[in-house]
Amino acid sequence: MFKRDGSSDTYFGVVIVGNRADIKRIGQAPFQNNQQLNITVRATDRNGNTTQVTFATVQILVGPRAPQFKLEQFTYRFQEDNAVNQRITTDLNRIKVRSFQNNAVIFSILDGNSQVSNLFEARLAAQTSGDVKECDLYVLRSMDHEVDPKDFNLSIKVTEASTGLSSTVPMVVQLTDKNEFNPRFSISTYKKETVSENIAVGAVLLQVTATDQDLNSKISFSVNNDHFRVQAVDPNRMENPYTADIIVNKALDYDSLQVKLYDFTVTATDNGDIQRTGDATVRIFLTNVNDEKPVFTENMTADVRYNAPVGTEIYQAKATDADGDGVKYRFVSNNPKFQIDQNSGRVVLQQKIVDSQAQISDFEYRLGIIATDDGACCGNTQTKSSTSTLTVNILTDNTVRPSFDNCQLLNPKVKEEVTGATVIQVTATDTDYGKNGKVTYSIREQNVPFVINSTSGVITTSAKIDRDKLTGSKISINVIGEDGGGLQGTCLLLIQIEDINDNAPVFGPLNAFKVLKTASVGTIVDTVEATDADISSNGQIVYSLVYNPGNYFIIDDNGKYTGTIRVNQTLPQNLNVLTIRVQAADQGTPPLFSNVTINVSIVEEANALPPVWLGSEESYIVTVAENVSIANALLTFTAQSRNASLPTLSFGLLDNFGGLFTASSNAASGLNQTGALRLLTNLDYEKATVYSVTLLATDIKNQRSSKKCTINVKDVNDVTPTFLGIDEESNFLELKLLEGDYTTTPGAGQIVDTIRATDGDGTSPNNLIVKYEIFSDTSGKFTINSLSGVLSTKAVFDRELGNVYLISVKAIDGAPSALTIDGSPNTGLVTVKITIQDVNDNVPTFEKTMYNFDVAEDTIIGKSVARVTATDRDSDAVLSYSIRSGSSNVPFAIVAQTGDIYVAGEIDFDQGQRVYTMNVQVSDSIFTSSTNVTINILDSNDNPPVVQDYSYTNITENDNSVVGKLVTIKVTDKDNNGVNTFFYSLRFSDSLSQNFFAISSNGDLRIIKALDRDFPDGLAEFKFTVEVRDAPLDKKPLYGYGEVTFRPIDVNDKAPEFPTEAMQMTVREEQPPPVVLGKVGVVDYDDPLLDNSKFDLAIISQSPEPTQVHFSLSGTSIRTNSILDRERVNKYFLTMKAVDRGTPKQTGSGTLTITVEDVNDNAPKFNQTYKFVLSEHQTEGEVGRIQAFDADIGVNAELTFSLDDASITYFKMNQDRETNQGVLTIFKAVDYDNQVNLQRNFTLTAVVVDTDPNHKDQTRIQILVIDYNDEIPTFNEDQKSVTVAENVAVGKSIARFNAFDRDVNPEYEKFQYYIAHDRDRTKRFRINQNGEVFIENPLDYETTSIHVLHILAIDNVNVSVTDINDNFPDFKQKDLTGNLMEHQQYNDEEILTITATDADGPGNGGPYQFDLDCSYEGGSPQCNCQLSGSGCPSSNTNNFSLTKDMAGDSNRGTAKLKVTGEFDGGFERVVKLPIWMCDLQGLNRSDQQCGHRFLNIKINGKDNNTQLDGKQSITINYYMK
Q1: pLDDT score of 6
Q2: Which among 1199, 1158, 1192 has a CA at the least distance from the CA of 118?
Q3: Closest to 196 (Cα-Cα) out of 280, 260, 263
Q4: Phi, psi at residue 1356, to the nearest 5°?
Q5: Cβ-count burial of 104 within 10 angstroms (0-12 exposed, 13-18 middle, 19+ buried)?
Q6: pLDDT at residue 383 above 90?
Q7: Given this model, what pLDDT does residue 1362 score?
Q8: Element (H, E) at 1448
Q9: Which of 214, 876, 1001, 1267 is deepest in the core (most CB within 10 A)?
Q10: Measured distance CA(88)–CA(247) in Å, rounded
Q11: Which of 1331, 1336, 1341, 1256 is nearest to 1292 (CA)?
């Protein structure tokens, strides 16, 4: 809520409006002029737990109040290098002030001396309206941040022109720097040598320095290598120079660098709006320390046979050291069976493992190996070590393959719908030793719902199995047992999927159950049937009644499970329907059940009952062979209709088992109807052995009864044997056999595998496999046991001679085939693919006996440089490579698995060994061979040039004797035996040094012209970098850098200079002397430490008024000697001279321009009185304009026009700031015709005032008002009544009317009289122009007894049509045409000025917009030949352009047409230019009109075209009078 406090209750009250408090005047107590009242308003909230209160004081001043600024202080910024008269403010931050009297105001900017500023100006905004006035701040001249003040402490004053009331508030204007210069480092390249790679993170390496000529720029630094960071020495520094430390950011690494230095860029970035940057190069040269441990290059494993002889080389351990140190090896703990060479890392067998495989106790040895470097890289002061493990596997013979001894005895079972259930565990045995006797298990088939533990052989389900979706009840899988040597054995399993009770019985469709009321006990009502997808007891259904009110019905299947419903006792005679509920429950554990509700209709008539099945049996039982012909009926049956009048029956099935069965009608005899059950497709015992079919009999009334038929299917031998384990992709039974000689194997020979077949028939002997035979074997090497299917051989197999054998095996079942007629059994065939597995019986061999490789010295440690390759005819041979012997400390190692040779130590062509030889051995664990390898070390460019630094301080500037060669740059390089070709260049961090220095191709540093130490052509210090590369650019050169410094000795060769920007000063007129204007800016670029740069300054002359000494010098400061008058002289020119004190002396001169600024010391003056004519019809808008003249300029001459208090009743004076005129407008409409208050002549007094309220003048304005026909005629009598006889004579006068109006002009009192047509449609009357009414046609009382006439008086009507903007502009100049001379070259020359006019009325015309639209259709090609596809002749670049002047034609806008090019009248005699013209430009009006006008440019002048003969017909017509 709001509440008023204070002592102003007499005058004011507070009215609450929502969240607003309105202060309103109350009572009639009088105010006193200039009385000040303060109202304190208190606001209190109501919602919070704690009441919050705030106060505000409102100050009310009685009488006129000075204008009030919106802000107590204004602050603005602008950027240097601004335009003259540039606006500083924007539309959003204008200076705003409220004029409480809503008077015109004048703004002025005052400097620190409270004088009108000569640098800044406030201008009233054009769109200012209402009591809030706005102005913009302008800067009057261009500023330079490096020369002018950075802050201007000003004030802004606002004055009401009519009252003289004013207010002033402070204003600060800040000059901001324009980002003109890039930061620059003191040198182009910084370097730091001999930096240890283990230098601490955070250590300072060096310091960089940068400067920026932009005075207000702050520089920040960055680097482009994350190993380093850069940090400003003084983060708060805001002036040149800026320094920063280059600091180690993360650990450095000598060993990872090909060239042992870090080369990166440091960047200096300023803080300008558009940032500028400068770069320098930083180079950090590293020295090595032993900070790298030896690293073993691979996981070390080796194989050795159990009976390998002593001295067998097992492995060569190799560790690399990034520091390039030598490495020695030893075991962590000694093992008596192995020995390691400390220099080479070779591990050899020191004792035999065992004599026989049976003696092996350990099949794996783990040997810890320590590698220790020697610290040779860095003075042997410390060493480093690392440890790894060599795993030695003991190899044994692999002669026995895994065997599943009890595989055929296994009978695996698993329940359906269980994931992770254990099926069975299989076990294979292998009598081999070590890994060759270790068996791993897998399942061959991919898409089966089983997994096997690879170690234990336990088989489990991997997914739920739904037995109901299987084609059979078993799933076959092949289990593979594989030993460590790759030999395999298989076990074929048939896994029985056992049913679980997971399906509840499902009732089928129900009949309409009906029974006679008189039905006897035992009568069959009908049968219900349900099905269950489970098998055995899980699918066997027992029916019972679970809801049987009155116990009228019973289900007694007698173990037949038929669901027959019978009458149990006499039915009630008073009921028509009995409801029972039947339950079908399977015999699973626990049982599952379903219920169905049945409504039994009790009927009185027999024909309302469904048909009845004839025959004593409750259900039919049929037994048939599965191959019974579908032409034979399975069953013939008879049903009787209960409807004697419509006895016809139809037969059907409740379920036809997917189209397997059908029921049809045969013959009818009275009420009896015969039908048959038939097959549609063949039966299959293997799919189902029993079908329970429900027969349906339906009468005409759609009454239905059913009867169960059980069909037992007998098995026949109609399935051929199939083999287990066949590969799904190849369709082969794939077996494996180890190569070898099996001719002496006892018994049947070497067992290859057991082949098993199955028969899909349902019963024995149809499904028995009684015999196996080899059907085809071209090799003759295999036999098969006819009963067991064991495939064996007594032959020799050499994998290298033949690795695959194909044979065909036949399986025969145990009964005559139902598929043939000859009584033979069924047989199955399979192609068996026997793959011979490899045995290591061949020696590996190298492709070459000698290898030669070249390796560059800069190859990094760990990189592969060569490969030796051996081959072995054994397919399963695993080859292992090792270096057996070679040069001492060979810096190479070999990858055991691949034969890749890689760099394992430091190689150096320049200071180390240049050729290495070694013997490389390959082993397949039994056999070995070797080859010799020679590696030649090639020289690489891996050392950068080292460049000497130079410094010179003894060279005098301007000395031509030093021009020429100064020195040959000294460069050294370790590469190429020190003999190198170098490429030289100079890198400069400034733009001047390149003018003085150059370097030749042989490194001669030359001075190309005498040095200059002085600005602007020279430097006090030249500092640049000599860059040397040691190879052409396409050869990946390395670079070296040296620094060169020159500090020339100064001579006095620079005269003092007067910078142009410093030779402008201003002074305000009328100030008493002395007034200090400022300091004369004189510079001498000679050495500031010498007299060469010191000078004496004098004024030589003054213009104008040379005899009057208006100015004098005090040091370098200029001051006034007299009072200046701008109206007399507005600008002075002083010739200045400065003489330095060097030898010889140098003199400079310049002109100092002093501008005298205006003060408001002249009042405005009218030079005439004004007379305007005003039509009384004009009710608003401009009447006329007045103008006064003021000898002052700028803001001091900005005039405000007003009317005195006696002149403001009907008129108002507005301001046109653009023209500095007063605009007289209508405030209240005048009435020429008012006889009481005559408004026909007005004499007004106009007042003009400038920014000084005391500077006023006035003039008289005479207004002559002219009459306008704006009054409506009025009759003397509003109504007349006349009585005449119906026989009055035609032409008789019956009445007279007189009208008048208030218009004074007699012409406006001439009326025309009319009778309204709608009141005299029969034209019985007429009126003349004197208002007299006559009888025109006879009257008839019986037709019309009363005539009511409307008499109209119409004066001379003026119709004013209001204009709308519906025309676009046209050329103001009639027939505007331009002319050009052909074959004359024009270069952006002006040929005419376009002005515009508009057919629309005032306010719908200018300002106008002009544009040249050369792409507009109809324009000539030469409008702009530079347009794509213009059509101009080739190489023609003719074009026209428009320069717009919006101030031209009295601010209506003009455009100057300019032309460039040379024109040929033969191509175009007239160039048509499409000019796009718009009215109302910049007024943001939606009714702006635009369109194209064509301007024709004629090509005139000399004609260089060939003249041709022509003719013209002329007809002369002669007329005679």
Answers
A1: 46
A2: 1158
A3: 260
A4: -75, 110
A5: buried
A6: no
A7: 62
A8: helix 1448-1451
A9: 214
A10: 45
A11: 1336
Q: CA 554 → CA 71, 571, 574, 1156, distances in Å?
A: 107, 12, 20, 134
Q: Which helix (H) or strand (E) holds 1450?
A: helix 1448-1451
DSSP state, 756?
-
Do strands 1274-1275 and 1299-1300 pair parallel, antiparallel, or not at all (unpaired)? antiparallel
Residues in the chain: 1521
Q: Under DSSP, is residue 894 helix (H, G, I), strand (E, B) or coil?
A: strand
Q: What is the DSSP string of 1399-1456?
A: SS-TTSS-S-EEEE-TTSTT--GGGBTTSTT--PPTT---EEEEEEETTHHHHT-EEE
And the tokens for 1464? 């040929």
Longest Cα separation, the chain: 171
Distance CA 303, CA 1416 (A): 90
Confirm if 486 and 437 have CB atoms less than 8 A apart: no
Q: What's the pLDDT at 1513?
A: 43
Pair of tokens at residue 547: 């809801």
Q: Is 608 helix (H, G, I), strand (E, B) or coil?
A: helix
Phi, psi of 1386, deg, nearest 5: -110, 140
Pairing of strands 1256-1266, 1170-1175: parallel
pLDDT > 90 in the chain, percent = 35
| Gap between the Cα atoms of 1406 and 1478, Å rounded | 9
Q: Are 1086 and 1075 in contact (CB under 8 A)?
A: no
SS3 state of residue 976: helix
Best CA proximity match to 680, nearest among 629, 623, 630: 630
The pLDDT tens digits of the residues spanning 192-238 come to: 988 998 899 999 999 999 998 876 678 999 999 999 999 999 988 88
pTM of the predicted model, to two decimals? 0.46
Contact call for residues 17 and 60 (beta carbons, < 8 A): no
Q: 891: which 2 tokens?
A: 């810096």
Least confident window among 724-728, 1284-1288, 1394-1398: 724-728
CA atoms within 13 A on the CB side of 697: 30
**Region 1003-1018 average pLDDT:** 94
pLDDT at res. 20 = 78
Q: Which residues of 1023-1047 are buried (b: 16+ CB within 10 A; e: fewer)?
A: bbbbbbbbbeeeeebbbbbbbbebb
The CA distance from 657 to 691, in Å, is 9
What average pLDDT does this structure show over 1379-1405? Answer: 87
How far, CA to CA in Å, does 699 sit from each of 236, 363, 611, 965, 1073?
A: 110, 88, 7, 132, 140
Token pair 């296994």 is found at 410
Is the model more confident about 1043 or about 213? 1043
Percent of the chain with pLDDT over 70: 95
Mean pLDDT of 1235-1259: 88
Residue 1015, CB-side half-sphere exposure with 13 Å CA sphere? 9
Q: CB of 1497 within 8 A of CB of 1468? A: no
pLDDT for 560 beyond 80:
no
Q: Where on the phi/psi map is residue 376: left (φ > 0), alpha (ψ -120 to 50), or beta?
A: alpha
The structure tokens 């289900």 sit at 555
The mean pLDDT of 1293-1318, rounded to a whole number, is 79
pLDDT category, 1346, cuts 50, 70, 90?
confident
Distance between CA atoms of 55 and 47, rounded to whole angstroms?
18
Strands 704-714 and 690-698: antiparallel
Measured torsion, CA atoms of residues 559, 561, 563, 568, in degrees rounded to the nearest 10: 10
User: Residues of 32-68 as b/e, b for ≥16 C-beta within 10 angstroms?
Assistant: eeeeebebebbeeeeeeeeeeeeeeebebeeeebbbe
Tokens found for residue 1508: 């041709």
pLDDT value, residue 621: 92
Peptide bond into 1016 cis (omega under 30): yes
488 contacts 458 by C-beta, under 8 angstroms: no
State the Cα–Cα distance between residues 18 and 964, nearest whole angstrom: 92
Can you tell me the distance from the alpha carbon of 1165 to that of 1250, in angstroms, rounded to the nearest whole number? 10
